[in-house]
Amino acid sequence: MGKKVAVLLTDYFEDVEYTDPEKAFKEAGHELTVIEMEKGKTVKGKQGQASVTVDASIDDVKPGDFDALLLPGGFSPDQLRADGRFVQFTKSFMDDKKPVFAICHGPQLLITAKALEGRDATGFTSIRVDMEYAGANFHDKEVVVCGNQLVTSRTPDDIPAFNRESLNLLK
Fold first, then answer.
1. Could you give the residue ranges of the DSSP H alpha helices within the chain?
2. I need a surface site. Which of 40, 151, 161, 167 has the fewest CB within 10 A?
3. Nearest to 151 by CA among 106, 100, 117
4. Residue 134: pLDDT band by 50, 70, 90 thresholds?
5. pLDDT band for position 121 (50/70/90)?
6. What pLDDT does residue 127 have?
7. Which of 68, 90, 80, 55 shows the shortest CA–CA distance to 3?
8. 70 - beta bridge partners?
9. What is the pLDDT of residues 18-27, one digit of tens each?
C-alpha cells in the first residue's frame, strides 16, 4: 500500500534531489504532495532543469495527513526554515517518529527544528558544523539511517543509496 509523502520545496532546490526521489517513490506506488507557501505556484530548481507545481499551501496541510517527509537540498531548505510554519511541520514528523528523508542541505530544516540532538546523520559538507552544533553525530557516509526513522545523505552522488534506504523505510 502506497504511503503519502509530504515534500517541502521552494525555488532553487537541487533539481535531481527532488526529481530522482520523486520518480523512485512514485514507481514504488507512493504519492507525493509538494508543499510551499502558495498552492499552484511553480518553483524552479537551481540548475534550471526542473520546475514543479506546488500541490498545497503550508496553511492547508497538517503533518497528520502524511506518512513521511522528504526534504530535498539546494537553497530551498535554507529559505523555508526562515518560516516557522515549515519548521514546526518538520519538527512534528520527527516528534511523531514518522520517516524523514533529508539530502544535502535538507537537514537545515531539522537543525532549525532542533530535531537532530543525539541523532546519527549526514549532510552536505558545508553544514557539517551546523549539524554538530545541533547535536547530531555526523557521519561522512553516502547514507545514514537513524532510529528506523531518519534517512540522510550528502550530495546528488548519494541519491541511489538515499532512495534505496528511504524506500526501505516506506515498506
1. 15-27, 76-80, 84-95, 107-112, 128-133, 159-170
2. 40
3. 100
4. very high
5. very high
6. 98
7. 68
8. 7, 101
9. 999 999 999 9
Q: Are the CB atoms for 170 and 30 separated by under 8 Å?
A: yes
Contact assessment for residue 87 and residue 118, using Cβ atoms and an 8 Å cutoff: no
CA 126/CA 13 separation, integer angstroms:
16
Calpha distance 150→162 (Å, rounded)? 11
Cell readout for 30 is 507512493
Please tell me the predicted confidence (pLDDT) of residue 110: 98
pLDDT (0 to 100) of residue 1: 83
Kindly tell me if the per-residue pLDDT of 154 is higher than 90. yes
In the structure grid, which three cell numbers stand for residue 106, read together?
Answer: 535538507
Residues 6+ apart with CB under 8 A from 69: 5, 6, 7, 8, 63, 89, 90, 93, 98, 99, 100, 101
Q: Is residue 4 helix, strand or coil?
A: strand
Q: Name the residues annotated as catalytic.
A: 104-105
